[in-house]
Amino acid sequence: MWEYDFMQNAILSGIIVSTICGIVSVFVVLRRSAFAAHALSHMSLTGAAMAMLLGFSAILGQLGVNLIAALAMGFLGDKVKKNDLAIGVVLTFVLGLGAYFLFLFQNNYSGGVLNILFGNILTVSKAQIYLLIALSIGILFILSICARPLLFASIDPTLAEAKNLPTRFLSIIFFSILAITVSMACQIVGALLIFVLLIIPGAIAGLWCDGFYKSILVSVLIANISVFISLCVAYQFNLPISFCITTLMSFLYAISYIKNLVFKS
Amino acid sequence: MIECKNLVLGYNKAISEPFSLNLPNNQWFGIIGENGCGKSTFMKTILGNIKPISGSIRVLDKAPGNSNDSIAYIPQEREINTSEYTSGLTLIELSYNGWHCGIPFLNTATRKKALDILELVGATKYMYQPFSTLSGGQKKRIYLAQALINRPKLLLLDEPLADLDPEAKQHFIETLNKIHKQHDLTLLIISHDMHQIAMDLDGYIHIKDSQVHYCQELPCIREGVYVGI
Predict the structure, then answer these.
(1) N or C: which end of chain B has fewer CB within 10 A?
(2) Which chain A residues contact residue B97 at CB under 8 A?
(3) What is the value of pTM for the model shown?
(4) CATH of B1-70+153-229, one of 3.40.30.10, 3.40.50.300, 3.20.20.140, 3.40.50.620
(5) Distance CA B176, CA B157 (A)
(6) What confidence tens digit (pLDDT) does each residue in B17-26 have?
(7) Which residue from A67, A259, A171, A14 is spatially nearest to B84, judged by alpha carbons?
(8) Which residues from B are below 8 Å from A81, CB to CB?
(9) Are the Cβ atoms of B90 and A211 closer than 8 angstroms?
(10) Is residue A244 part of a domain?
(11) ipTM of the complex
C-alpha cells in the first residue's frame, strides 16, 4: 500500500501532526484546556468556510481565524481557571460568524464542510505537507524558547505570577500554539474529532508516568503508533481513518484508566 | 534587606498611610493585623507584583521584582495543576528555574539540590509519591522545599500554618526554625497563629487602621507601644 502517493503523503502528514499533537497534548491536559481545544476546532470551521468563500485554501482560513481567536482568548483570561468564560464568549461570536459564512456559501459547501468536520488524511497534498512541516518547525521553535516558563505557569500559576512571569503573554502563546496545532490536526481527524489527538495522548501519558520528558515521549509515541496502525487498518478494511484513530485511542485510554484503578486499589 | 521610605501600599487606592521601615538581614519577622488590612498586599509589594501608590521600596538592594532567585514566596492559596503521577520531586525541580526561558532541562546537579532540600525539610519519604495524594502538612513541606531550592536570602510566607492540625503546625514551625538558624535567611511570615511562633520572632509589623507600625514583642501590640526601625 505504501507505493501509492496518497498513502505516502498520509503517513508523512500523520507523523508530523501526531508528533506535534503529542507534545501540545501534554500542555493541554496540564492546563485543563480541553474546552479551548474543542472551541478552537469548532472555530476552525468558520475559518475554513470563510477561506472557501474567498477562494483560499481551507487551512489558511482556519489558521487565520484560530490565531485571532487564540489572541482574544489569551488576552481575556490569563489565569488557567479564568479561561473558560473567555473561551465561551469568543467561541459563541466566531461560531455565529461561521453560520453567516455558510449561509453565504450555501450553494456548494457540503463536501468541503464534511472534510473539515471529519478530516480526510488521504487527500493531503505535497503542498499541504510542506505547510505542515513549516508550522511544526514554528511550534517547536516557540516551545524551545518558552517551554520551561509555560510548563511552570501551567503547573503552578500562583507561584509563576508571584515570580512576575508574564502569565497573560504565556497564555496567549499557549493558545496560539494550540490554534496552529488544531488547524494542522483538522486535516487528519477533522474539527469534530480533534479531541482524539489533542487530549487523549496527554491524558494517557498522565496515567502512566511522571516528569515532563517521559510524558512527552509517551504521548508522542501513543499518537504516532495510533495514527500508523489506524492508517494500515483503514486501508486494509476500507474504513474511515478518523473512526479507526478514535476507536484505538479511546481503547488505549480505557486500558490505562482501568490499570490505574487496579493499581491504586 | 528591606528598606521602605514613605511607602504607601495599595492596588489602585491607598490602603495605608505613608510609613518607613528598615528590616535587617537574618531575622524573623511577623506581619499581623485583621483580615483585609493589607498584609498580603505588603508581601506582594515586596515581590514586585504590586507597585506601591507612592514612596520607595528596596529589597536586597534592588527594586522589587529584580531578585527572583533570591526571594522565595509561599502563597496563601495555591492552584497546582498536576497529572496523576506528578510527584513532589518533579514540582521542586521545576521551581528551581521554571521562570527562565528555554526547555525544562534537568541535570544531576538540580536533582542533588532537590534531594538535599527535601532532606532539610523532612520530605524525603514521600518525594516520589503523587503530589495529589499527599496530606495538607506534606504538601506544605513540598512548598517549603520548592521555596528553598534556590537558597534564597528572603523567604515570604503567607499564612503557612492555615489548615494544618496542631501536630503538623508544630513540625512546620520546628522546620522553619531549623532552617532559619542553619542558613542566612530572613523570614517574613503572615499568620493568625503568632502566639505559636512568638518565641522565635525578632519583631512584628503591625498593620491597623491603615497605620503600619513596628514593635519587638507581641504584648506591645496589645498595648500600642511601637518603636521605629
Answers:
(1) C
(2) 148
(3) 0.84
(4) 3.40.50.300
(5) 10
(6) 898 888 888 8
(7) A259
(8) 79
(9) yes
(10) no
(11) 0.82
